[in-house]
Structures are given as C-alpha cells and as structure tokens.
Design brief:
The structure holds 2 protein chains of 2 kinds.
Chain A (H helix, E strand, L loop, with lengths): L1 E10 L6 E11 L4 E5 L6 H9 L6 E6 L2 E2 L10 E4 L11 H11 L4 H14 L15 H13 L5 E5 L7 H18 L2 E6 L2 H7 L2 E6 L2 E6 L1 H6 L4 H6 L4 E11 L2 E5 L5 E5 L1 H4 L4 E7 L4 E5 L5 E10 L3 E8 L4 E7 L13 E6 L4 E4 L2
Chain B lengths: L1 H40 L3 E2 L5 E2 L5 H7 E3 L6 E3 L1 H33 L3 H16 L2 H12 L4 H9 L12 H25 L4 H8 L4 H29 L3 H6 L7 H9 L5 H33 L2
Helix pairs in contact in B: 2-12, 3-7, 3-9, 4-7, 5-7, 7-9, 8-9, 9-12, 11-12
The chains are: A alpha+beta, B mainly alpha.
Chain lengths: ~350, ~300
C-alpha cells in the first residue's frame, strides 16, 4: 500500500515558483492497477518520479507498506520504473539488462540466471536473450524494459507513459499484455498516461490530475459516467455542456429546465453541490438520441454528419446557438435517417445527464 | 550508353584525385618526405660540425641503447639514454592518469550543466589551451618556484618553515604537462558524455545501483571511447614533450624530446638524433596500436 499524504512540490522561488504538485493525497492499494491520468504538465510524472525517488517533494510524506520512503535514495526503494524512452543499457545484451537489478542487489549467480530466464519467458523474449538492445524493435525494447523492471520483484512498478512511442496496433497489444503481467505477477502498477482510452481499458482505479492536483479518483465507469467536475468531464471522452436551470432537488436527483423550455431530470446534484438556479449539465454524445423534429426535449439544425463506420457523429446547432454532438451506432434502421440541413430533435433519457460544479 | 557512363566514371575519378591533391601534397612533402630523410640520416655518420657525412653506419642505432667505453671499448647499456626513456614513459603515463583523474570529473560536471552554460564552461577550459605554450609554462614556474606564489602563501600561513623545492623536479614537469594537456583529455570525454543519455543514470539508480556502481557499470563503459581517445591525445605529445621539461625540469630531468634536441644541437650527432626520433615514433606507434585494438574490441562488441 502506498500512502501519499499532502505531497507538494514547488519548483523555483518567489514569483516564478511553480507548483508541480499541490497538496496531493492518495492511497494506492496492493495489487492494484492504478493510473495517473491528465494533460501534459499536470504533475502526473512528477508524482511518479517522487515515488521513485528522483524528485524530492517540498513537503508531505510517502509511505510504502507503512514505512516512510522519502528518506531513502532511489536505489534503496523497493520500487522499479519503466521509463518513457525505456532507458535500456546500450552496452549490454537483453539478458544482461534484465540481470542488472538482480546483480546490484547481490543475488547469487544461479538465482539471477533463473530469474532472467523466467522474465524472458514472461515477456516472450527468450529467443532474443543475447541480442544487443539496439538490434531489437521498439515493441521488443518495451518488453525488455518491463522484464528488467519486474525482475527484482519490486513492491511497486512505476510506468511512465511506456506505450507512447509505440504504433497504434502494438499499443493495443501491449495494453492487454500489461494487464496480463499485472495480474500474473500481483505487483502494484502505477501507470502514468495522458491517453484516456489507455487509462479506461487497463486501470482498476484512475486518478485524474490537473494543475498539480488530483481532481477525481475512481474506477473507469465512475470517472466516465459521473465526472465530478467540468475538467474531468471535458478531459475524459467527449461531453456536451448545457446551461440549465435547476427547479427541484431530491437527494442526488434534480429536475432541470433546458434552454428551449423543456424539462428533464439529471443526477449529481448532491455531489456537485448545486443549488437552485443556473447550473451546467454534462451529457455524453452516446447518451442522447437523434429524433425527428418536435419529438425531443431540444430542437436544432443538423449542421454536420461524420461517418465513422461503426457509428456516426451528428453535430447539431441548437436554437440558442450552442453546439451539441451525438454519437449513434449505425444499426441498419438508422441508416440515412437524417441528413445534413435537417431540422432535428434531441431526446435525453431522464436521469442520464450529470450536474457539474464549474 | 556504356561509353557515356565510362566517361563519367573517369571524370569522377579525376575529380576525386583533384580534391585529394592538396592533402596528398602536404602528406608527401611535409610528412613522408621528411620522415624518409630522418630514416636515411639515422644510417649515416655524423659530420664534424653537425650535419651528416654520406658514409653508411649502424652506429647511431647502436648508441640508442648501447655505449662503448671510451678507454676499454667495453660494451654496456647506455644507462643515460635508458633512464631518459624510462622517465619519459613514466612521466607520460603518470600525466595521462592525472589528466584523467582531473579531466573526467570536469567533463562530467560540464556535461551535466544546462545546455546554455555548457559552452561557457568549455570556453574556460579552452582559453588556457589557446594561450602560448611558453607563457603557460612560465606561469607554472612562477607559481611553484622557491619565492613563488605557492611557497609564499604557505610560508605566510605558517604551514611550512622553508620553501619547498618543487621547481626543477619530475613533479614540476608532470604538473606542467597535466596543466598543458588537460583540455585534450576533457574534450573527447566531454564529447562522449554529451551524447550520453542521462536517463540511463536514473535507470541505474532505479535498479539498486549505488553512485559508484552507476559510475563504473553504466557511465564509464559508455564514455570509454572518449577516455581512450583523451588518453592517447595526452600520452603521445607527453612522450615527445620538449618545452615543458626544458623549462620546468631545469636541464637536469631530461625527457626524450630534450635528448633528441641535444643531438641536433650541442651533441652534433644528427644520426643519433634521427635514430632517437624514430625510436620515439615507434613507441607512439605501439601506443596507437594498443588504442586501435582496444577501440576495435568495443566496436565488435556493440555489433554483437
């Protein structure tokens, strides 16, 4: 278990001071695939490097298994890192790279050899054991970097955007591979990425970060379906933001009036802490449905239709000028139902929209 | 068609030779030619007032290592020459090691500075290098002579009672050579360190390597080509150093360069001077061969 408490990291001094981490507290459980997700410069890598020991926080504490690790140098922390550029040692073979950590720990030769073989097997690189690291492909280097970091059996594996240098197909394979490795080894993975899809598909829990702060922590579903605030809703997936008026609140649910005058129900009132009056309603493009004009809760002009194969994106300009995007699966009956320039209606199922604090 | 391409090939070949010719001319007239003269001279008889007489003789080569007693005509090793050979080798090696000891951390320091300030640091290393050799050597002399800066300071601080004799010793020669040739060690090491990926250092720390292990297992193997190049660049000119041992050695501690100069000057034994020069060249060649082999092994390794 990693307990991160009130960690702040300030670079520079005075006016030019920059808070890379702003009072971050989070507890990462054992055997968890935990992802730090956020745009570049949000502090996710700084937090990872603080756990690894390459960054000294200005204040706060980090405990690993109940023990304060901030006083230990990186080479004394039972934590290994998969670096973004892999940082494989170019003067060593694949096997020598994997053996490095074990040798530095002073493990006996026979144990080192056995573990290296086991790791090569685990990442399916056995035939490449004696290759020089410059002679293998990017995906293979990635596997070696993983094996090298896993070989000393760390309590925590830190992964710093390890898939960003791979092409699309390879990235997909590696996502599954990483998940498999995490399950097989039972090691806690802390994964840093700016790719929301990567985060959603692999993680047990996700921490969304922005401007040095953690904005929301939760499972993939929680984060996607119930974003806590506008930044999270905007960063993860596509979201339509509508200005609404809250009419009545019952627990978490609320009755709201849309710009066109129609009423619908939304949730998140309690968490967002909205009172009566003006608020923002977030709706996912796939949660709304395009209907003939007059049948929905909103009306607009279909300004653009973009065909994506499995689904189609419809861009609608609402009566008050706001834009609204819908994503509809291309079932046979949906085909050619609407064309650009049509007047259309938008149907919102009651309770699917999420009220947000701004 | 084939005629045309043949003509083009011929033109290309002529152009290549044309481009090469300035370098070839310099090599023929300034390197190969003089070297040939030196080889020829080493097999001739010394002239009465310097120069050579065109009589073939093995004497010069013989005197490089042996000497005949003036009275008894007994053959012995030329102790004077051998001790100078030994001193040259010893001081050059020690200078190379010292230059490495000081140069490696310096290069590491500069390579780990932010990009903007690196050039400024390099400039500080290079400025002395661009200064006249004599001026630098006399500056060292001023520092370490009996009434020089260092002794005056130590006396004033009360650390010593009488000035330490530093000038005109082997130490002063070494100090001078380290000072003069240090940039030649720093530059190639810095060049390989600049290309060094410092995230490898983090990877080392991350994999439980201590500072010392990271230095010896990760940094050093990867900048080794620079270290070898720097060592050669320092070692070779040290072997033939002339000004530094002359000024800082005070005429007592001769090195090979001084011995050779002596034969062409007061000694009036040009053939011996030529033979000694070729001996020096041979030593340098052996050192370079050693370098090529060490570098070659590295090359083979990295190509699997």
């Amino acid at each position: 278990m990693i307990e991160i408490e009130n960690v702040t990291k300030i670079y520079g001094e005075g006016k030019s001071a920059f808070r890379a981490l702003d009072d971050v507290s989070v507890t990462i459980k054992d055997n968890e695939f935990f992802t730090l997700l956020g745009p570049s410069g949000c502090g996710k890598t700084t937090l990872l490097r603080t756990i690894a020991g390459f960054v000294d926080p200005s204040s706060g504490s980090i405990r690993l298994g109940g023990k304060d690790i901030l006083q230990s140098p990186p080479y004394k922390r039972p934590v290994n890192t998969v670096f973004q550029n892999y940082a494989l040692f170019p003067h060593m073979t694949v096997a020598q790279n994997i053996a490095f950590g074990l040798e530095m720990l002073g493990k006996p030769k026979r144990e080192v050899k056995a573990t290296v073989e086991e790791m090569l097997e685990l990442v399916r690189m056995t035939p490449m054991a004696d290759r020089q690291t410059g002679q293998i492909s990017g995906g293979q280097q990635q596997r070696v970097a993983l094996a090298r970091a896993l070989a000393p059996r760390p309590q925590v594996l830190l992964l710093d955007e390890p898939l960003s240098a791979l092409d699309f197909k390879l990235r997909k394979d590696m996502q599954l591979e990483l998940k498999r490795l995490q399950t097989e080894t039972g090691i806690t993975f802390v994964f840093v990425t700016h790719d929301q899809e990567e985060a959603l598909t692999m993680s047990d829990r996700i921490a969304v970060m922005n401007a040095g702060k953690i904005r929301q922590i939760g499972g993939a579903r929680d984060i996607y379906d119930q974003p806590a605030e506008r930044f999270v809703a905007d960063f993860i997936g596509d979201t339509n933001f509508l200005d609404v008026e809250v009419l009545e609140i019952t627990g978490d649910a609320a009755r709201v009036r849309l710009a066109g005058g129609a009423e619908t129900t939304a949730r998140g009132a309690a968490e967002a802490g909205t009172g009566m009056g003006a608020a923002t309603l977030a709706t996912r493009p796939e949660h709304a449905r395009l209907v003939p004009a007059g049948q929905g809760v909103m009306e607009g002009l279909l300004s653009q239709v973009v065909y994506f194969g499995t689904d189609t994106h419809y861009h609608v300009t609402l009566a008050d000028g706001a834009a609204f995007t819908l994503r509809q699966q291309n079932t046979p009956d949906m085909a050619h139902a609407f064309t650009q320039g049509d007047r259309v209606g938008i149907h919102l199922a009651p309770g699917v929209g999420q009220l947000l604090k701004d | 068609m084939s005629d045309l391409s043949a003509a083009r090939r011929a033109t290309e070949r002529r152009n290549r030779w044309l481009l090469l010719s300035p370098a070839l001319l310099i090599l023929i007239f300034a390197a190969a030619g003089p070297l040939l003269i030196v080889v020829v001279y080493s097999f001739l008889t010394p002239g009465d007032y310097g120069g050579v007489k065109p009589d073939f003789s093995w004497n010069a080569w013989f005197s490089v290592v042996m000497e005949r007693d003036f009275f008894t005509e007994e053959l012995t090793f030329a102790d004077a020459h051998l001790s100078i050979f030994w001193r040259s080798l010893k001081l050059s090696l020690m200078t190379t090691v010292a230059a490495f000891v000081f140069g490696f951390p310096t290069a590491y320091f500069i390579a780990t500075r932010p990009k903007r300030s690196r050039d400024a640091w390099m400039l500080l290393i290079m400025i002395p290098f661009w200064t006249n050799l004599l001026i630098r050597t006399f500056a060292i002399m001023e520092l370490i002579r009996a009434e020089g800066t260092v002794n005056t300071l130590l006396l004033w601080l009360g650390i010593i009672d009488a000035p330490i004799q530093m000038l005109f010793t082997e130490f002063s020669i070494m100090l001078g050579m380290v000072y003069v040739y240090l940039p030649l060690m720093v530059l190639p090491i810095y060049a390989s360190m600049e290309r060094f990926d410092f995230s490898l250092v983090e990877a080392g720390y991350d994999l439980y390597a201590t500072r010392w292990k990271v230095l010896s297992k990760v940094i050093f193997p990867l900048v080794k080509p620079g270290v070898i190049a720097g060592s050669i660049l320092v070692f070779v000119p040290c072997l033939g150093a002339y000004v530094t041992p002359r000024v800082l050695g005070g005429g007592k501690n001769l090195m090979l360069g001084n011995l050779i100069e002596l034969q062409f000057g007061q000694g009036r034994n040009w053939p011996l001077g030529a033979a000694l020069s070729l001996t020096l060249l041979a030593i340098v060649m052996v050192a370079l061969l050693f370098y090529v082999r060490a570098a070659g092994q590295d090359g083979e390794k990295s190509h699997g």
